[in-house]
Amino acid sequence: TLEFKGYKKIVEKGLRVAGFKISKNPKEYDYFIYLKYGISEPNVEVKQKFVPIFGFDGPSSSTTYLNSPTGNSATAHTYNSGAGAYLAGGYTKSWKEVTYKRYLSLAAYKPNKKNAKVEKDFDQVWTVVTLSTGRSGDLRMIYPSLVGASIDYMGQDSGKTRNHLLNIGGFYNTMISLVE
């Protein structure tokens, strides 16, 4: 499809940046890269937050007269604050938060014999799965970032999961998990 061809081109650019040479001739390749990608249905969560409303009852002062046991009088100033800031009430603010899960999976296979044609003729060499959760439901906007986050891990297989927080244009904050 046209969509797949566009995503394939972005992956090819990422592979070139990672040091791979792209071949159109099956007789010249060292690896076969299997590409999968997708996006979930929207996940809608209703969030709520209590917003307090404060009142202010300013400080007040009073004068207190004291008599000492010796008969001397003294004046003491006592400052009694009113209630000051106090919780006068509040309201609950509600909103919907919509998120999507996006993924990119790249798996490299190397032929284990000449003229390999069927699945058993290939050995998986490395895999990078990049997972993302964020507010954008447009995979075309996030896909280049998924590929970019994967570049440093292409050609490696550490068996670890790494988490990275990417800030993609402010609005598209996204958490990337790389499963190598």
Report on the architecture of this protein:
The structure is a single chain. This protein is α+β, with helices and mostly antiparallel strands and 180 residues long. Helices cover 16% and strands 56% of the residues. It is built from two helices and six strands, in the order H-E-E-E-E-H-E-E. It has helices spanning 2-17, 139-150; strands spanning 32-39, 43-67, 73-111, 122-134, 161-168, 172-179. Strands 1, 2, 3, 4, 5 and 6 form a six-stranded antiparallel beta sheet that branches. The model is unreliable at 170-180 (pLDDT under 50).
Short structural summary:
With 180 residues, this protein is an alpha+beta fold. It is 16% helix and 56% strand. It contains two helices and six strands.
Mean pLDDT, all residues: 77
Instruction: Please mark out the parts with pLDDT under 50 across 5 or more consecutive residues, or reply none.
Output: 170-180
What's the gyration radius in Å? 32 Å
Main beta sheet strand tally, sense and closure: 6 strands, antiparallel
Tell me, briefly, the overall form: elongated
Number of helices: 2
Task: Fill in the keyword field for this structure.
single chain; 180 residues; six-stranded antiparallel β-sheet; alpha+beta; disordered C terminus
Show the helix and strand layout.
Elements: H1 2-17, E1 32-39, E2 43-67, E3 73-111, E4 122-134, H2 139-150, E5 161-168, E6 172-179
Antiparallel strand pairs: 1-3, 2-3, 3-4, 4-6, 5-6
Helix pairs in contact: 1-2
